[in-house]
Design goal:
7 helices; single chain; about 200 residues; alpha/beta
């Protein structure tokens, strides 16, 4: 029988699904793509999947169906994606607002909260026209309000909390990979703060 050419720490040895939560602009999609490659998993972005299925951009859904209509679509897609195996999923920033979504995330994978500072979120989203909740006169104030509302919910579901800071995407992905390995190797360790 030939030797297994894979190293002992092969990415595929990380079990199950990885779900990324955090506010818009935290880097869930960009980091998620890198993590999927590192872990040999399939990447999905919940918002992009909604757009693919409806054939329109999320702001159009908000215009026609309102936030409640969008959240209903989001919950249905999240439930379906979370049932898949060996995926990395970037969730929408508001997915955690729905209690059922939080339950689905916790029960179906390892949840990583990408926590970003208000200033970083504002810099990354201030010119973005595809984020309906930020189409206000004061984006910074709206982001601050969203942080206050959602941070406790992100913390509630998070297995790991990772501060994004100013590091590169590759450094961030490497840090997350290391923390995930530590998490799975340390029995009974339910939560780690990574700063």
């Amino acid at each position: 029988m030939p030797d297994d050419p894979r190293p002992a720490q092969h990415p595929a040895t990380l079990p199950g699904n990885v779900f990324l939560v955090g506010l818009m602009g935290a880097g869930k999609t960009s980091v998620g793509r890198l993590l999927a490659k590192r872990f040999d998993k399939t990447f999905y972005d919940c918002d992009q999947e909604i757009e693919r299925r409806t054939g329109v951009k999320i702001p159009v859904i908000f215009d026609i169906e309102g936030e409640a209509g969008f959240r209903a679509r989001e919950a249905a897609v999240l439930l379906e994606l979370a049932a898949l195996h060996d995926i990395v999923l970037a969730t929408g920033g508001g997915a955690v607002v729905c209690e059922e979504n939080r339950r689905v995330l916790v029960q179906n994978g390892t949840v990583i909260y990408l926590r970003a500072a208000l200033e970083d979120l504002w810099q990354r989203t201030r010119h973005d026209r595809d984020r309906p909740l930020l189409q206000t006169g004061d984006r910074r104030a709206k982001l601050e309000q969203l942080i206050m509302q959602r941070d406790p919910l992100y913390r509630e579901v998070a297995t790991l909390i990772v501060d994004t800071g100013k590091q590169s995407l590759h450094s961030l992905a490497q840090q997350i990979e290391q923390r995930l390995r530590e998490h799975f190797q340390s029995a009974g360790h339910a939560r780690q703060d990574c700063t």
